[in-house]
Amino acid sequence: MTSHSASPLPRWPVILFTLGLHLAALLVFLPIYFSWSAVAVALLLHCLTIGLGVSLGFHRLAAHRTFKVPKWLEYSLIVCGTLACQGGVKGWVGYHRLHHLHTDQSGDPHDSTQGFWWCHISWLMHEVPNSAELGRYTKDIASDPVYNFCHRYYLEMQIGLAILLYALGGMPFLVWGIFARLFVGFHSTCFVNSVCHNFGYRSHNNPNRSTNCWWVSLLTFGEGWHNNHHAFPNSAQFGSRWWEIDGVWLMVRLLRALGLATQVKSLNQNL
Q1: What is the model's pLDDT at position 6?
Q2: Does the pLDDT of residue 271 top 50, yes or no?
Q3: Could you give the percent of the chain with pLDDT greater than 90?
Q4: Which residues lie closer than 8 Å to 95 by C-beta, 6 or more apart?
C-alpha cells in the first residue's frame, strides 16, 4: 500500500472549489445578506443534507447497510446527501468503507496518525493513493442508475438548488442556504474524521484512535459517537448511553415504527 509520505499530488479542482467556498462563506458577515428567514433555510437544509442525507443516507444506509427502506425513500435520502456537496456518493461510500478496513493505518484515506490537518481536510486536497480500489468496495451500488446520476451530477444539482434559492429569496437565501450551509456541513463531517480520532472519550477499547465527542454529535445528529460506531459498525444506533443523543437513530426508530425501515441493526443486537 502506498504511504502518505510519498507526497501525493494535489487535486487543484478540489482545492480551488474549497477555497472559493470558504471565501464565499465570509459574505455572511455583511449585514445586507442577513435575514432570519435565510438562517432558517440554512438550518432546514443542514438537517436535510447532513442529518437525513449524509448521516442517515450515505453513512448508515449506503455505506453500512444497517437497515433497509423502500427504494423511493433510499433514493430520496441519497439525493439529500448529494446536496451536501461532499463529492460523489460512490466516492463517499468507498472511502468510508476503506476507512473502516484500514482505520488509522496506511490505507485509511484520512489516517489520523498523519496529523489533525491531514485527516480533517488535507486528504481531500490530494490524490488518495488507494483511490483505484474504490470500485472493489462499491460494487453493490456501481450499476444503480440513481446512484450513478447523483455521483456524476452532484455539482449540477447544487447549482440547481442555488438557482432555486436565489429565485425564492435573493442573495440572503443564496449566501446562507448555499455558502454558509455548505461551509458548516463540510466541517461538521470533517470533524468526525479529525476530532473524533484525536479528542474526546473512549467507551470501547477499539484497536484504533476513535473517540466520542458530544459537540460533533450535536453538529452531525449523532455521528460524533464515533468510538461506539467503530466498536459496532453494523449498528444503525451510535449513541449507547442515555445522554448520548443520536438524532439519526431516533429517525431510524420512527421509520421502523411507520413500517418504512426493516432489518434494523441496533446496539442491543451487538452487546
Answers
A1: 58
A2: no
A3: 90
A4: 109, 110, 128, 134
Please report which confidence band the pLDDT of residue 268 belongs to, taking 50, 70 and 90 as the band edges: confident
**Contact by Cβ (8 Å): 126, 78:** no
Angle at 233 between CA 230 and CA 237, to 5 degrees: 100
Average pLDDT for 39-51: 98
User: Residue 221: left if φ>0, alpha if ψ -120 to 50, beta else—which one?
Assistant: left
For residues 247 and 221, what is the distance between their CA atoms, to the nearest angstrom? 5
What cell was used for 224? 460524533
Q: What is the pTM of this model?
A: 0.94
Task: Label residue 226 by pLDDT band (50, 70, 90).
Answer: very high
Q: What is the 3-state secondary structure (H, E, C) of the chain?
A: CCCHHHCCCECHHHHHHHHHHHHHHHHHHCHHHCCHHHHHHHHHHHHHHHHHHHHHHHHHHHHCCCCECCHHHHHHHHHHHHCCCCCCHHHHHHHHHHHHHCCCCCCCCCCHHHCHHHHHCHHHHECCCCHHHHHHHCCCCCCCHHHHHHHHCHHHHHHHHHHHHHHHHHHHHHHHHHHHHHHHHHHHHHHHHHHHHCCCECCCCCCCCCCECHHHHHHHCCCCEHHHHHHCCCCCCCCCCCCCCCHHHHHHHHHHHCCCCECCCCHHHCC
